[in-house]
Design brief:
mainly beta; Tachylectin-2, Chain A; 1 helix; globular; binds 2-acetamido-2-deoxy-beta-D-glucopyranose; signal; Glyco_hydro_43; hydrolase; hydrolase activity, hydrolyzing O-glycosyl compounds; Glyco_hydro_beta-prop_sf
């Protein structure tokens, strides 16, 4: 490029990078975000499934949250804990936990359900299926996400497999399309001290890929403590469904700068790139931590070290402005 065209390209980049402030949205726990055709779509835990969309990260703060799904079927009518939206062959599907309002033990009724949408993440959505009912017994399941590897899709979630370990753990299973789960393997249990503050917990998995490597982040410890944090399961190539294929490291992202219990993240690409990863996560300003609506959604860049391993740094302080992703 000539110096002049380089300058024009630089100015074009700068013109598109809107500054943003953290948190990017308040009262927004367990966030997940995608970008599609000029808009960001932010989902978080709620009483129904809702989506907030805007052309820039900064505009998500005040954009309207649009409800896209609720149900009167008492098998799955409450507690839509973190919905995520994923694309299968051009169609968007929401994966969400739901519980039954009429169950004698509401907590025990939590299962993963799939909603079918259309050609953009905006919806509308219709109920499609429950996942996992036929896989080695029907078990408690929350926090679904999708991992892609070698053309296969896998569901990853927080499970409670008492035979493996009597606490919330991370499970993975292969998907046959978006609506059928074929199997289930426990790949991480909360056996280290940093995973056991409050209660032993592994939850909120999210996949990220970099220079041929595959990682799952997850959240460790109880959300109601300031020690809620992120760890990483690094895939070592010996088979996705093999528990010994996942090397655990943590804690890698912990309370700092007035943000407590940072976790339950989701990875999202700077638009138009294949490896410029950013993350959304929640944190609370309460120094005791909290599982309540004081959890706000933060957004920041993810770096990688010379081994192509994710580097989260520290949660960014409330305020800003922070430079937005250049591709938006
Ligand atoms: C959002 O939460 C932050 C603390 O994380 C607080 O400083 C800010 O005032 C809140 N914004 C609104 C609009 O309530
Ligand atoms: C409610 O959902 C359950 C489980 O999917 C299903 O068996 C039942 O038929 C549904 N009830 C209605 C009224 O649609
Ligand atoms: C995973 O851990 C095993 C056992 O500690 C080690 O031999 C291997 O090099 C690790 N692999 C990766 C990719 O970190």
């Amino acid at each position: 490029m000539t110096p002049f065209s380089t300058l024009v390209a630089l100015l074009a980049t700068l013109a598109h990078a809107a500054d943003y402030y953290n948190p990017i949205r308040n009262d927004s726990a367990d966030p997940f975000m995608v970008y599609d055709q000029g808009n960001w779509y932010l989902l978080s835990t709620g009483g129904d499934v809702g989506i907030t969309s805007a052309p820039t990260v900064a505009q998500l703060a005040n954009a309207e949250r649009v409800p896209v799904f609720s149900s009167t079927n008492t098998s799955y009518d409450v507690d839509y804990w973190p919905p995520e939206v994923h694309n299968f062959d051009g169609t968007w599907y929401i994966f969400t936990t739901a519980a039954s309002s009429t169950a004698q033990d509401r907590d025990a009724s939590r299962r993963i359900h799939v909603l079918k949408g259309g050609s953009t993440p905006a919806g509308p959505y219709t109920y499609a299926a429950q996942l996992g009912a036929n896989v080695a017994g029907d078990q408690w399941a929350i926090d679904p996400t999708v991992l892609f590897d070698g053309g296969n899709h896998y569901l990853v979630w927080s499970c409670h497999d008492e035979a493996a370990y009597n606490a919330q753990s991370i499970c993975i299973g292969q998907l046959n399309g978006p609506t059928e789960l074929l199997n289930r393997v426990v790949i991480s249990t909360p056996t280290n001290g940093w995973e056991q503050n409050g209660f032993p917990v592994n939850e909120g998995p999210s996949a990220v890929y970099y220079n041929g490597r595959t990682f799952l982040s997850f959240s460790a410890s109880y959300c109601g403590t300031a020690q809620y944090s992120l760890g990483i399961l690094a895939y070592n190539g010996n088979g996705i469904l093999n528990p010994s294929s996942w090397n655990k490291t943590g804690p890698l992202f912990t309370s700092a700068n007035g943000d407590y219990g940072p976790g339950h993240n989701g990875f999202v690409l700077n638009p138009g790139t294949t490896q410029d990863w950013w993350q959304v996560y929640h944190a609370t300003p309460k120094s005791s931590g909290g599982c309540d609506n004081s959890r706000n959604t933060f957004f920041q860049k993810v770096n990688f070290d010379s081994n192509n391993f994710p580097v989260f740094g520290q949660p960014e302080a409330v305020g800003g402005p922070y430079a937005g992703p250049p591709g938006e």
